[in-house]
Design brief:
The structure is a single chain. 28% of the residues lie in helices and 32% in strands. It contains eleven helices and 20 strands. Strands 5, 6, 7, 13, 14, 15, 16, 17 and 18 form a nine-stranded mixed sheet that branches. The two termini are 32 Å apart. The chain has 382 residues and is α+β, with helices and mostly antiparallel strands. Helix 2 runs parallel beside helix 6. The radius of gyration is 22 Å and the shape is elongated.
Length: 382
């Protein structure tokens, strides 16, 4: 069915088969449009949508950005309801506040949670005994879940298949060009050779590769910051398997169930990022090349050593593997820890739109922004 629209016109081309790209494709398909999604890899949702902590945020992470926290509180129940078969909630979610190095006290964290309406109860004594009380001021029982990235991918592909939308894998978008009547031509490199698809609208949802496509199209780029990030996978002691823990704020580390691999993740604010750079017009770092670099060295020993100071039982955890990925954010987000989505309309060409997602459940913010922009365009007669 892909071939039926190849080298012809369709309504929407979505470039990037991560969760945000698939969800946007599903959004337009359900409204009766002909949609083609192209994914550079052999399998959708195998990059940033997979290589993360699989956390469905409920606002707790963002005491420095109340707006982000409130958006997460709004999105959390909606995401859990829509993808209930992809959610893992059979563990106790704990947030602990450190005594040293942080800028947040237990009282402040509790007050913040009350402000955003997030459940935050003092944990039982049995749960607190997992922590070194010399380093941890207080432990709170919260409501937060994990998602299974493989089940989520399969769910989205089934939805697109049911709508007759096409997903074309191992296909790279090289360039977007203008056509008459504000249509766009997307130049593709496929396993069968070069192809061209014309579309009314194109959504660039390539995350770390957003500016790569824009450069290839001789279009203005977007200021972005990238990090080479490592998420460690581990087998944890039996006594901790029913827990998901986040330690705030200075020592900030976290471990959660990772359903897609039957293990737990470990991330650390100091050791998960290995290097960082700003994406500039004149010089770009190819994320794919960096991910293949033989110079990568796991920070597991330092991560687990530091985490074990706060939770001594973690010293018996066993390293399994590392998930390496490029994390991309808006530079302004580093100042206040916010995680807004980016929807940049008409980026250098009419009807070429760039989307940068954040937390997985913030996909609803993207859809709402698309709907608002389309409503405004209709009202204005565009």
């Amino acid at each position: 069915m892909v071939r039926s629209i190849c080298d012809a016109r369709c309504d929407v081309v979505v470039i990037g088969g991560g969760f945000f790209g698939l969800y946007i494709a599903d959004y337009f398909s359900r409204r009766g449009g002909s949609v083609l999604t192209v994914e550079a890899g052999p399998v959708p949702m195998a990059r940033a949508s997979f290589s993360n902590q699989a956390r469905v945020h409920n606002g707790y992470h963002y005491p420095r950005s109340v707006l982000t926290a409130l958006r997460a509180r709004t999105s959390f129940p909606r995401f859990v309801a829509e993808f209930s078969d992809c959610i893992v909630d059979d563990y106790e979610s704990l947030y602990a506040v450190g005594r040293v190095l942080g800028n947040l006290t237990a009282t402040q964290f509790k007050r913040f949670c009350d402000r955003i309406g997030a459940r935050c109860d003092r944990a039982s004594g049995d749960l607190k005994r997992n922590f070194d009380e010399r380093l941890i001021e207080e432990v709170f029982s919260t409501t937060e879940h994990a998602f299974d990235a493989v089940k989520l991918r399969d769910r989205m592909l089934d939805r697109l298949h049911d709508q007759g939308a096409e997903v074309w894998t191992s296909t790279t978008a090289q360039r977007v060009e203008r056509l008459p009547e504000n249509h766009l031509a997307v130049r593709l490199e496929t396993p069968e050779g070069p192809r061209t698809v014309a579309a009314r609208e194109v959504y660039n949802c390539t995350y770390a590769g957003i500016n790569t496509l824009l450069r290839g199209s001789d279009l203005p780029t977007i200021p972005l910051k990238h990090e080479l990030a490592e998420m460690c996978l581990m087998r944890i002691p039996e006594s901790l398997k029913s827990l998901g823990v986040t330690v705030m704020c200075g020592p900030f580390f976290s471990f959660l169930p990772f359903p897609a691999r039957g293990s737990h993740t470990l991330s650390h604010v100091r050791y998960t990022p290995h290097c960082a750079w700003l994406d500039r017009d004149a010089e770009g770092v190819d994320p794919a090349t960096l991910l293949r670099s033989p110079l990568r060295r796991s920070s597991w020993p330092r991560m687990i050593r530091d985490a074990s100071r706060y939770m001594p039982s973690l010293q018996d955890a066993e390293y399994v593997d590392s998930l390496w990925e490029i994390k991309t954010v808006l530079p302004a987000s580093e100042a206040n820890d916010s995680r807004p989505i980016l929807l940049r309309r008409n980026q250098g060409l009419t009807n070429l739109h760039c989307v940068l997602g954040a937390k997985i459940d913030s996909v609803y913010d993207v859809v709402e922004a698309i709907e608002a922009d389309r409503s405004l365009a209709t009202t204005s007669g565009v």
